[in-house]
Amino acid sequence: MTQEKVRFGAPLKIPGWVNYALIPLVNLVAAFVLSGIVILIVGDDPLEALKVLLYGAFGYPEAIGYTLYYTTNFIFTGLAVAIAFHCGLFNIGAEGQAALGGIGVGLICLYLDGLPFWMIIPLAIIAAAVFGAAWAYIPAYLQAKRGSHIVITTIMFNFIAASLLTYLLVEVVIDPNGQSPESRRFIETTWLPYFHDFLAMPETPLNLSFIYALALSAGFYFLVWQTRWGYEIRVVGQNETAARYAGISPAKNIILAMMISGALAGFVGINEIQGVQHRLILDFTGGYGFVGIAVALMGRNHPIGIFLAALLFGALYQGGSELAFEMKSINKEMVIVIQGLIILFSGALEHMFRPKIEAAYRRIAPRRPVEAS
Amino acid sequence: METFHIIVLLLDATFRVATPLVLAALAGMFSERSGVVDIGLEGKMLGAAFAAAAVAALSGSAWVGLGAGIITSIALSMLHAYACVTHKGNQVVSGMAINIVVAGLAPTLGYAWFRMGGQTPPLSGDARFRSLTLPFAETMRDVPIVGYIYAELISGHNIIVYMAAAAVPICAWILYKTRFGLRVRAVGENPHAVDTAGITVDLLRYKALAVTGLLCGIAGSYLSTAHGAGFIRDMTAGKGYLALAALIFGKWRPVPTLFACLLFAFTDAVQARLQGVELPVVGVIPVQFIQALPYILTVLLLAGFVGKANPPKAIGEPYIKER
Amino acid sequence: MSEQAPALELRRVNKSFGPVHANRDISLSVDRGSIHGIVGENGAGKSTLMSIVYGFYEADSGEIFVKGDRCDIENPQSSIKAGIGMVHQHFMLVDTFTVLENIILGVEGGFRLADGMTAARKELIRLEKEYALEVNVDAIVGDLPVGLRQRVEILKALYRGAEILILDEPTGVLTPQEADHLFRILDTLREQGKTVILITHKLREIMAITDNVSVMRRGEMVAHLKTSETSQAALAELMVGRSVLLQVEKEPAAPKDTLVSIHGLNYLDADDVPRLKDINLDIRAGEILGIAGVSGNGQSELLEVLGGILTPTSGSIRFKDQELVGSKAFTARNLRKIGLGHVPEDRHRAGLVLSFSANECAILGYHDKPEFNKGLRLDRRAIVETCEAYIKKYDVRPPDPYLTASGFSGGNQQKLVLAREMEQNPDVLLVGQPTRGVDIGAIEFIHNQLIKMRDAGKAILVVSVEIEEVMSIADRIAVMFDGEIVGEIAASEATETRLGLMMAGVRENARNKKAAG
Q1: Which of A3, A6, A239 to mutate to test the interface with C (most CBs of C within 10 A)?
Q2: Which chain regions cross the lipid bilayer (chain A) (predicted)?
């Protein structure tokens, strides 16, 4: 370290790969080790379980299709949570926003199904975005204008959304010929095309929304880092006082970021309702909104990281159901345990290994030039 | 007289529903008053519910089960402290991680140990907390109004209901009249002041979170060994979040929090009664609306439309010395 | 324990924060029953040193002796036990608590509060009498004015049996009268045999009240002196390491048109407290208008109103013949477009986004200008090139447009902000605390840049709490007190005494009316 560096107080820079690859990896390994211990406790072989999990997620074409279908949901919610994070907001309400997005999609597919598919699909996308964004708008407005804490309001809004969905399914859009609280099946012209419709692959739920999710990831990158609007969102997220000083309205950007966030979460409805279920059902959000927080955290709020993290959780979902099938002591809740542990280690305990890893890096790294000379 | 009976029955149901809410909300109060956000009340309750039911089933004693529930809940609370206090992790993420881990772990272990689809064996006899009949309850029953209230409403609950009732004044006393309470309130407002006053911030928050764990443990055990008779997956069903809402609605103070819990529990009791009942003017109120009411009320309160809630000033921020 | 031993002695204390060596081999000896001053520039390591003595930070190496006994001070508990009390720059009080609750926090005297409270109340009333520190023990601290809160802090230390009292920049938030009152209290403490350590960067205070003084510079102790045997000039030289040219060399101003004209400006804050009262000011091209005053007397609000961040309650601001109040142009964003630059008082909180790279910081507030955008996207290349040009012209070091803002020293951060605001070539420039926390070399550079801009015919408003700074660069000086302009004089007629009186709220006009305070 040079004298100059000491004077300026700039700590030795930790390179990106430590921050963006090594530390998340260590956290992930820790979560898996602990999960392995749980598997040992319930009386199964963790290594065998890992093998089944990997095979179940990637081992054959069908598995990959399923994995990518789950991944799609996690990309949507991961991006949703990430855009809010960029604005300094913790959107814990992606679950509720996804539910509303699904309601929007459902209403379009139920009541406008006379329209041709090339109109239905964009309309459904718009409805998912509008419903999701509207649901995020209220907590955002309350945070920006009335100072109520967004974490609490979005939690409350998840419950309110669940009640709303139940109400609609029980009282309004319920299939008159059915018993359970769900809508009638949509007519086929409203369905989103499956991958297996135009690719030579086995039947899986993987549909066009996967491509849409990838396109949104690119759009996300462009918006956040390449435009003045993304710049404003990031300024507000990092330093509200500086934003106000620079003439950037925190309130406007909080609302904007949250509405984008809600719209992104709402697209889960496209994948689930229009892509796979083809009817409005209860609980189709399946915790994707909550796991989206883990996806964003692990992915460091960057679309590439989010894709990788989404793929991880997608694999976990798909491989996990295989696991419950194959192993005698493991049921599908095991996947929830692994998920929770990943969130614990890569989110709440992310600072546990970091100082040690950084210190280790510092011990090793500066020696190089010395040895070279 | 009919209405009177209905009201007494409604209130009776209210008390039963309110018990875990009161305990969990008071638990949250210690955590949040010390500056640590706790959305993990749900997970701690669920963990305690599972441990209490499992141990009660094995030991045949509800009390041993309660002990196991409390230990489990405190352990989870210490994990929260370890993440948020020691490692300055994000408190919301930590709470959520705990909720998710427990939601998976309890049925996983239940499935492995009891092979009953993630449930624990049904509890009976001493493995469950039974209703207590207070002295003279039966003889007083015939005394009009007062006697009926005593026999139906006051008497006939299990011990944990009475514990919850006692917990409110005890927690209020601890919070406002003791050294520990003073320090907890101080550390949630200004941890720097506490540190410079020669008190270790981290240790204090650990202690507060231990109290949180204790109370949550009782709340969770109530669900599986007193209110219910065994553990069912997801049996907390959002009660932890509802308790959190009650805590906020009660502005982080014990007595208003108690009333918030009673209000929320009352809406729950009423909802069961109102199902499909045609009311004058409004007609049939959808059940889902009544279910969502506590959350709507809390949002309105937070938005300042119904009073004003001022959270502890240092809440949510890990304590880091300057620089 | 020896009678002769000093109250506090430090031997070769070292402390580093990462690669920053904040305290280097510090030795210090403080006599019993004396007031000992420690002076140094911002960032010289004074506060760090005292935080080590108070146990808030642990020293990396070195020894601490209290009354001749070696003490292992690891945390505030051990220093309280050793009889050391500290009044921090930012008060360590719980605003929602009463004075009494604040004072007993940590020394409650039993599990039940009621047990200790009665005794504490009696003891406090005794202490208040003994040291003339009157304050209502049942008042809520958040409702008290700063001067009283400081008294609570002093009481807190005395209640814990402090023999040595450390005060960190105690007058920063006080009016001169309150500061005088504080000094009387410190005098009383000395008479009662207490030892006081006063940390400050204000030399006048050192001369006025201390017996001995130690000077710190860049983490090192450079001198120990008897106050009676030194002078302000000598101390200033020791602080900065060479003779300071306090007077900036400049030609007399040639003021031209009035570019900003403020009339009857009022501002009420969110709690309806008046922060600006009937402000009348003209800012003219080719002139630097300095605003002096103790911090917290409305200067920050004035800057933020003029910068379009706060909306005034009433009054008029004419900007180049355009009325701003009530107009669409009156936002921070639009003002920049019509030629107003603003260097904020606090570069960390407002001027920069510390986690952003230098080049992203270089467009803050100007990010939507066409030159930085290409269609929908930000023009990264143009931004980096602009930043490189700023870095070169303002000699920002290290010259790396990709380094995060937090990686620059205070002076270089300030240069970056100045470059951004000046290079947009505004007609009017608002500058808050131009050299706060800036090293001496950069101070000269910044002052010269401001003068150059003035000579180029721009109108400049400088707000500074450093009276010397205002006197040296301003052409005209207005003094603010309690939200009002209490006086306006030409810099050539200003003396420290005159300004000092005005800063205390004493008006110079015919009726010589004393402002409330």
Answers
A1: A239
A2: 21-43, 63-85, 92-111, 117-138, 150-170, 206-224, 254-274, 280-297, 304-320, 335-353
B31 vs chain A: nearest CA distance in angstroms?
Answer: 16
Q: What are phi and psi of C224, to 5 degrees?
A: -125, 125
Q: Is residue B229 part of a domain?
A: yes
Q: Percentage of chain B with pLDDT > 90? A: 58
Cα–Cα distance, A79 to A293 (Å, whole number): 9
Chain C residues with a Cβ under 8 Å from any Cβ in chain A: 17-21, 307-309, 331-336, 342, 344, 346, 349-356, 360, 363-365, 367-368, 372-373, 376-378, 380, 397-398, 403, 407-409, 412
Choose, out of B37, B86, B98, B100, the residue to mutate when testing the contact with A (most A CBs < 10 Å).
B100
Amino acid at B307: G
Cβ of residue B39 closer than 8 Å to a chain A Cβ: yes
Between chain B and chain C, the number of residue pairs with CB atoms below 8 A apart is: 74
For A350, which residue in chain B has the nearest alpha carbon?
A: B89
Residue B134 is assigned to a structural domain of this protein: yes
Measured between beta carbons, the chain C residues lying within 8 angstroms of A7 are 409
Residue B311 domain-assigned (yes or no): no
Distance in Å, alpha carbon of C14 to nearest chain A alpha carbon? 15
pLDDT by residue (tens digit) across A222-254? 999 999 999 999 999 999 999 999 999 999 999
User: Between chains, do A246 and C333 touch, taking CB under 8 Å as contact?
Assistant: yes
Q: Where are the domains of chain A?
A: 75-295
Asked whether the beta carbons of residue A347 and residue B295 sit closer than 8 angstroms, the reply is no
Fold type of domain C8-240: Rossmann fold (3.40.50)
CATH code for the domain defined by C258-348+427-503: 3.40.50.300
Please judge whether A336 and B112 are an interchain contact, meaning their C-beta atoms are less than 8 angstroms apart: no
Element (H, E) at C156: helix C146-159
* Tokens, residue B256: 């208003």
CATH of the domain at B133: 1.10.3470
Give A368→chain C minimum CA distance, Å: 19
**Domain spans of chain C, in order of start:** 8-240, 258-348+427-503
What's the mean pLDDT in B142-157? Answer: 82
* Residues on chain A touching C403 (C-beta within 8 angstroms): 10
- Residue-level pLDDT, tens digit, chain C, 517 residues: 445 789 999 999 999 877 678 899 999 999 999 999 998 876 678 888 988 999 888 899 999 999 989 988 888 888 999 999 999 888 899 999 999 999 999 999 889 998 889 999 999 999 988 888 889 999 999 888 888 899 999 999 999 999 999 998 888 777 767 888 899 999 999 998 999 999 987 777 888 899 999 998 888 899 999 999 988 778 877 876 654 555 677 888 888 888 999 999 999 987 778 889 999 999 999 999 999 887 778 899 999 999 999 999 999 999 988 899 988 889 999 999 999 999 998 888 899 999 899 999 999 999 999 999 998 999 999 999 999 999 999 888 888 899 988 888 778 888 999 999 999 999 999 999 888 777 767 888 888 899 999 999 999 999 987 777 888 899 999 999 888 999 999 988 888 778 877 877 777 763 444 443 3
**ipTM over 0.90 threshold:** no
User: Do C8-240 and C258-348+427-503 share a fold?
Assistant: yes
B323 located within any domain: no
Domain that residue B193 falls in: 2-302
Interface of B to C at Cβ within 8 Å reads: 177-183, 185-186, 189-190, 192-200, 313, 321, 323
